[in-house]
Write a sequence for this structure.
């Protein structure tokens, strides 16, 4: 089912909804009272300090974890009441720590998006339509000349774009990006963010959630933001209202000045109050 199919069949543009989410791990409360709704075409940034619970929220969005309390609805289905394997096919997940260790080519990596596996599935062969879509995505993401290159020799930036193509192969309604700029130098980061801006422009119904703790790693096409602090949602809404000096300072418990220049966010240390 594509994004368009879901919207037309349900009459709703809601892609993801977290309701009163608590999450416990080994007796420790990781998340408390999380409420968040993501709609088709929205591009969310999930921001917070290390240990704030960002990756846990993303794992709930991706149907990898289940909440200890509360409900997670993805594309109209509630976790715990639907086959998660079917649901995960409608969610693209980009993790720069993709654990591939074998020398698959870029094209083969993208094709694993059809099976949802890290390695090639033995005796499985993609049909002509899937192969054509993989090649199209490689071209769109600027990797056509690298289609036969080994994963082991690709740069981190090239791997990141290949993982986006892999995540998009099944035609997901929701794309999750877990600190996608990890390990990139400045030039590769800027190229990657331009790729995201292009993706948002060419697939206007796609919803995205990007986790980071660096505002400089947000694409200019970011529409919404949510701030996590110590497992609780401090603020959520339009990016222009959430990514402010006051909100970011409170989120990180440190004075941080926020500036937006040519559509991108910049952060620097603010003036500290003398003790």
């Amino acid at each position: 089912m594509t994004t368009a199919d879901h919207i037309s069949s349900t009459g709703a543009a809601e892609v993801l909804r977290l309701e009163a989410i608590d999450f416990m791990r080994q007796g420790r409360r990781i998340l408390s009272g999380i409420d968040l709704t993501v709609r088709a075409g929205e591009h969310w940034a999930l921001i917070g300090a290390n240990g704030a619970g960002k990756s846990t929220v993303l794992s709930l969005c991706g149907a990898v974890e289940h909440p200890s309390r509360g409900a997670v609805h993805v594309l109209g289905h509630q976790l715990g009441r639907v086959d998660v394997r079917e649901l995960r096919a409608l969610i693209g997940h980009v993790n720069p720590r993709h654990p591939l260790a074998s020398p698959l080519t870029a094209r083969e990596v993208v094709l694993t998006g059809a099976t949802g596996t890290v390695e090639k599935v033995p005796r499985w062969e993609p049909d002509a339509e899937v192969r054509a879509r993989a090649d199209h995505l490689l071209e769109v993401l600027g990797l056509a000349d690298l289609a036969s290159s080994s994963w082991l020799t690709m740069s981190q930036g090239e791997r990141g774009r290949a993982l986006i193509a892999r995540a998009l192969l099944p035609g997901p309604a929701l794309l999750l990006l877990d600190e996608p700029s990890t390990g990139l130098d400045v030039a590769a980061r800027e190229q990657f963010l331009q790729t995201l801006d292009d993706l948002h422009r060419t697939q206007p119904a796609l919803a995205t959630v990007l986790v980071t703790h660096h505002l400089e790693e947000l694409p200019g096409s970011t529409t919404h933001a949510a701030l996590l602090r110590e497992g609780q949602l401090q603020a959520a809404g339009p990016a222009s209202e959430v990514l402010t000096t006051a909100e970011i300072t409170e989120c990180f418990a440190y004075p941080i000045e926020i500036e937006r220049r040519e559509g991108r966010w910049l952060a620097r240390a603010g003036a500290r109050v003398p003790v």
Summary: DSSP finds nine helices and twelve strands in the chain. The mean pLDDT is 89. The chain has two domains: 1-90+172-275, 94-170.
